Amino acid sequence: MTGLRAATAIVGIAEAVSPTGELDQRGLALEARMIREALADAGLGIGDVDGLCYGGNPSGMAEFLGIHPRFLDGTAVGGSSYELHVEHAAAAIAAGLCEVVVGVYAATPRSDRKRSSGNNGPRRFGPPPPGMEWEMPYGLRGPIGSYALSASRHMAEYGTTSEQLAQIAVDTRRWAALNPSARHRDLITIDDVVGSPMQASPLHLLDCCLVTDGAGAFVLTSAERAADLARPPVYVLGAASASDHGSSMTQMPDLTTTAGAVSGPAAFSTAGVTPPEVDLLMGYDSFTITALLHLEDLGFCAKGEGGEFAADGKLGPGGSLPMNTNGGGLSCTHPGQYGMFLIVEAVRQLRGEAGDRQLDGPEVAVAHGSGGVLSTMGTVVLGTEATR
Fold first, then answer.
1. Does residue 130 fall inside a structural domain?
2. Residue 324, SS3 per DSSP
3. What is the tens place of the pLDDT at every residue in 124-177?
4. How far is Cα of residue 244 from the mean position of the Cα atoms in its chain?
5. Taking the alpha carbons of 223, 227, 229, 235 in that order, is the dihedral positive or negative?
6. Crossing angle of helices 339-350/81-94, nearest 10°?
7. Quick one: which of 112, 207, 132 has its CA closest to 166?
8. How far apart are the first and last CA of the chain?
């Protein structure tokens, strides 16, 4: 999709993240607030919006907002939904289907748990997803058990160690220490990670993402219109997605290779950049193994070399490949679907607005989302310049 390159730009962002892990608002009120704030960031109003991306019911959301969009996208594939929303919205704008698209996400699992404490009543479950008959009867703990299988296989096949995975958590926490909005800011060591309680072997507690409230939104428009708006445009240079299985890890073709090996090269090809040219990687880190697989599948190192690649701290502050500069899903926030926050932080860094954690003049950033259980990957390449 060479016509997609730099045809559109992200011109507004918003985010609600708290160091307590909880937010005061929820539901439609929180989502509407994020949309208003993202539009205000762009210097636009709700009347300018003619496209909406929302992983719930986009028609219902449009009605709530009082808009009549020409473009709707209700794609819901888990944590990577928002990278796919950018991909789809960019294509729609480039095709002339709409001009200003807003995407939004909000979830409040941490505070919801407190609100419903003691009032749940009996829990009722529907039938398991197709294919789970190969996992549920054997006690696989979801979702962490699926990632533990991937980590175990990577260790067996390539010699990856728990200490190498732990370094990813350590470096992510180093970034979180610079972010006043992050849930956890105290520095940790490799020994802290491998000494934390085992959750599903070989993954320890500090290999796992948080459970917090969080919300965010983005505004995307044409490159032409972006030039006249309030904020410096962050161009969509390339975007692609791919999926290789659904909800069952037994259907993943290779437990050590994700569909990012397809979406990554495709997005880079459209963008006309290579991994060494990337200044920032915002890679979905539901678990440390998730982040490690991104490094390999996107081409930052060879398959099987992710552990060694990450082991020297190059992903943290001062490193050669800054990754998850907001503190990531491991230390900043993870409301269940983290992909929106990858986009927001990438834009913030490219605009030079990241405060104490700001990188030195980044020009190219990648937001790479993972949905399901390593199921659906979405890669978005963003840049400060339309031409390079």
1. no
2. coil
3. 445 666 666 777 777 777 789 999 999 999 999 999 999 999 999 999 999 999
4. 18
5. positive
6. 60
7. 207
8. 18
Q: Over the stretch 27-81, which tens digit does the pLDDT of each residue have?
A: 999 999 999 999 999 999 999 999 999 999 999 999 999 999 999 999 999 999 9
d(CA 44, CA 329): 30
Tell me the DSSP string of 67-89. Answer: ---SEEE----STTHHHHHHHHH
Domain range for 374: 2-112+209-387
- Whole-angstrom distance, CA of residue 188 vs CA of residue 208: 14
Sign of the Cα pseudo-torsion (133, 135, 136, 137, in order): positive
Residues 6+ apart with CB under 8 A from 197: 204, 205
Pick the closest to residue 141 from 376, 377, 375, 373 (CA basis): 373
Q: Which two tokens stand for residue 13?
A: 């962002």
Residue 14 gets the label, from left (phi > 0), alpha (psi -120 to 50) or beta, of beta
CB proximity list for 263: less than 8 A, separation 6 or greater: 240, 241, 242, 368, 377, 378, 379
The single-letter code of the amino acid at 80 is: S
Owner of token pair 């503190």: 327
What's the CATH code of the domain at 235? 3.40.47.10
Question: How far apart are alpha carbons 218 and 343 in whole angstroms?
Answer: 8
Nearest-Å Rg of the Cα atoms of the chain is 20
- 223 within some domain: yes
- Residue at 192 is within a domain: no
Report the number of distinct structural domains present in the chain: 1
Question: Taking the complete model, does pTM exceed 0.85, yes or no?
Answer: yes
| Residue 239 near residue 380, CB atoms below 8 Å | yes
